[in-house]
Design brief:
32% of the residues lie in helices and 20% in strands. The chain contains 6 helices and 6 strands. It has a 6-stranded mixed sheet with strand order 3-2-4-1-5-6, with helices on both faces. Helix 2 (60-66) links the parallel strand 2 (53-57) and strand 3 (75-78). It has helices spanning 32-48, 60-66, 86-96, 111-119, 124-127, 164-170, and strands at 6-12, 53-57, 75-78, 102-107, 139-144, 156-162. The mean pLDDT is 92. By secondary structure, the chain is of the alpha/beta class. The longest helix is centred in the first third of the chain and has 17 residues, at 32-48. The chain is globular and about 45 Å long.
Length: 171
């Protein structure tokens, strides 16, 4: 293929509000900390990566997270990401990668954590940061030296992982 490297970013939604238990899970909004964290991580993503496609779960908490990205033209919404397991996320990336060098999925645990965990053995020093948990608003970057059609859990590597607490701690 023509692309030397493809990158997938996995952005877990920011912290959501549990104050209204009667709300359907799909409709829970972000809480105050989530609204702060989403700004921090949106800037981090834009400063370090250049996704040309963003696919976001239809849940309110993911929609409220992704809206902080500057370029809304590249965002699409798919209910496929709402309860996606790691294997579903992999298939979504394969199906939608196309000619993009870098795509961003905005979704939920446990799928995100399972995906990053499956890739973790490729890069233990980065994996140390998320082996115990994959907190809200975390972003992992994974790269493959092949086209999207050929990506798998066995041939890529974790190249980055950050979360708001780590970034605030570095300020």
């Amino acid at each position: 293929g023509g692309i030397l490297m493809v990158k997938l970013l996995l952005w877990r939604h920011a912290k959501s509000d549990w104050d209204m238990p009667e709300l359907d899970d799909h409709e829970r909004p972000l809480n105050k900390r989530g609204r702060r964290d989403r700004e921090i991580m949106a800037r981090y993503i834009e400063n370090n990566f250049a996704p040309t496609l963003v696919i976001c779960s239809t849940a309110r908490r993911t929609r409220e997270t992704v809206v902080t990205l500057c370029n809304h033209d590249i965002i699409t919404y798919s209910s496929d990401l709402y309860q996606a397991m790691h294997t579903d996320l992999m298939n979504i990336a394969k199906r939608n990668g196309g000619d993009h060098d870098c795509i961003l999925l905005v979704a939920h645990n446990p799928g995100m954590e399972m995906f990053a965990g499956r890739m973790a053995q490729t890069s233990p020093e980065i994996a140390e940061r998320f082996t115990m948990k994959y907190p809200t608003c975390s972003v992992a970057g994974i790269s493959w030296d092949c086209d999207w059609a050929d990506i798998s859990f066995d041939n890529g590597g974790v190249i980055d992982y950050e979360n708001p607490a780590r970034l605030i701690g570095q300020e």
